[in-house]
Amino acid sequence: MQQHSTLGEFIIENQKQFKYSSGELSRLINSIRLAAKVVNHEVNKAGLVDILGKAGETNIQGEDQQKLDVYANTIFMETLTNREIVCGIASEEEDDFVTISGNDDSNENKYVVLIDPLDGSSNVDVNVSVGTIFSIYRRVTKSGTPVQLEDFLQEGNKQVAAGYIVYGTSTMLVFTTGHGVNGFTLNPAIGTFYLSHPDMMFPENGTIYSINEGNYVHFPQGVKDYLKYCQMEEGDRPYTSRYIGSLVSDFHRNMIKGGIYIYPTSTKAPKGKLRLLYECNPMAFLAEQAGGKASDGYMRIMDIKPTELHQRVPFFCGSTNMIDVAERFMKNYPATADY
Ligand SMILES: O=P(O)(O)OC[C@H]1O[C@](O)(COP(=O)(O)O)[C@@H](O)[C@@H]1O
Ligand SMILES: [Mg+2]
Ligand SMILES: [Mg+2]
């Protein structure tokens, strides 16, 4: 595909590659593109409008919702609902999944979307890059009937598409439909996404590690051992520590430069912090499509059978050789998280 073609052209050009290509998935990705532009507009002027700070509510995970969490959630929910292209949506900011029924109460649409409307919430007020993460599945229950929990609790290896938007120095939409990973940069002057990063690939090796070392004393021994390994004077080590605190932004940097992101279990978070369905599975799909790897330190993230909508898992994601080494340290000790 010729570089700098628009996202719209790319979608039309590649539609025939899309599994079950009936145009529905294209319309769905186009709607995510639209919602991304609306949210981007608000993020870019966050200090000027009343969108900073806490919303005064907590979500089902007991986290204080930021105003931008709520705003982004509303925009993505409305954009996807109004276009009647999905039969159900699950979101970090919604307690339960939302059934989208058509005018006649049934819904022939075949896709469900799982979304983290605003990723990196702790960075919103301090003007550090944040993102949105999405994951798309075909429903498994009969179309025309109300969507069920089982339509959302599918293994990551069943995803038909996944991606993220990073609202950073530039705004990019990066996604996969199972045929590689492509990145599109928004030209804010004309509101159009252009193909700027075709066929993105994780370097097999990297020298960057991303982890919140402030939790070091609470980490499992395998993680402590791996961090010591990263910091030793040997070969291409010590590695460089880089941690933005927005999964999307840390992942994006590591995919371009080579690196590993780890959010492990800890005595404070025995199952880890990140959510399997709308954070780890979509990033794992992208990582694998970009020649990288994603696990919980022991098993492939996308083979984990989900049991709850907001379940958390430990997350190791990045350059293949770095994940292999980290897993070798983890496998010296029994897994602590069970699901
Ligand atoms: O502040 P911590 O504990 O290091 O956690 C940071 C991690 O939590 C997250 O902010 C969780 O995502 P949300 O902001 O969507 O809740 C990740 O983006 C990030 O990598
Ligand atoms: Mg998140
Ligand atoms: Mg979030």
UniProtKB/TrEMBL annotation:
Keywords, comma-separated and alphabetical: Carbohydrate metabolism, Cytoplasm, Hydrolase, Magnesium, Metal-binding
Membership in a protein family: Belongs to the FBPase class 1 family.
Record-level GO BP terms = fructose 1,6-bisphosphate metabolic process; fructose 6-phosphate metabolic process; fructose metabolic process; gluconeogenesis; sucrose biosynthetic process
Q: Where is the Fructose-1-6-bisphosphatase class 1 C-terminal domain?
A: 203-331
Pathway listed: Carbohydrate biosynthesis; Calvin cycle
User: Under which name does UniProt file this protein?
Assistant: Fructose-1,6-bisphosphatase class 1
Q: Which cofactor does it need?
A: Mg(2+)
Q: Where is the Fructose-1-6-bisphosphatase class I N-terminal domain?
A: 5-198
Residue positions binding Mg(2+) 2: D116, D119, E279
List positions binding Mg(2+) 1: E92, D116, L118
Its ancestry begins with: Bacteria, Pseudomonadati, Bacteroidota, Flavobacteriia, Flavobacteriales
Highest taxon of the lineage = Bacteria
Reactions listed under catalytic activity: beta-D-fructose 1,6-bisphosphate + H2O = beta-D-fructose 6-phosphate + phosphate
Which NCBIfam families does this entry report, sorted A to Z? PRK09293.1-1, PRK09293.1-3
Give the residues the record marks as binding substrate.
D119, G120, S121, S122, N212, Y243, K273
An example molecular function term from Gene Ontology annotations:
fructose 1,6-bisphosphate 1-phosphatase activity
Q: Where in the cell is it found?
A: Cytoplasm
